[in-house]
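Late entry, written up from scratch paper. The run itself happened at the end of the previous shift, but nothing got recorded in the book at the time, so transcribing now.
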Amino acid sequence: MDAPSTSVIRGHIVSSTDTTTRVAIVTGGSGGIGRAVVDRLAGDGFAVAVHYLGNARRAQEIVDAVTAVGGRAIAVGGDVADEVAMAGVFDAAEAEFGGIDVVVNTAGIMILSPVATVDLADLDRMHRTNIRGAFVVSQLAANRLRGGGALINVSTSQTRLQHPTYAPYAASKAAVEALTLVLARELRGKNITVNAIAPGPTATPLFLEGKDEETISRLAQLPPLEHLGTPEDIAEVAAFLAGPSRWINGQVVFPNGGIA
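Output as recorded:
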């Protein structure tokens, strides 16, 4: 009989017959932070369902990059605010990999505007994705994660910074934080951790869009470390909460270089 094949990913030996591989769903996995989280978790030996909404080609490219180095990944599409579509995402991950251990919910949109002039239709659209989407994904995770699992939502340091024009976005993410903190207590006895990551200024397409060089440079100087965060910085925190940090639960973690 042939020996089982193995591959090495970020120092981990992964066997093709390994039945204990942990499984993660990364919503918004084709985005800036999402892509970094996919790469990091795959490098840590996770099988990953890369969720996307509109960019199927990019999601498949990410899957191809993971599988090219011996990892396991699939692309799964769906609107995070649509409970039927997202149940299908969870179904696909379970069918392919046998279960789900970690959900990292990076999907979100950001619309900036002063409160006095915000377009309420834009507000509704953002809140549908950021708030309803967080509830849909969190509800599914609460019911379908295996014991020892982790749900990681994504907020923003803007809930503490109070920068002008960020009120609509920060309000949506404050709701995500409240959801996260309460859900962690509601899941008593299930051995599932629930935490949120609240990044500071991070060099992602979502953050950089619409900002001139002067604005970007000013924001980069806000942290004491005097530079923008990277998606990989945020992925490091997600990987910690997804794996070894079983005693961190019901918390909001602020990876922002000391800005707040």
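The radius of gyration is 18 Å.
(Scratch paper discarded after transcription.)
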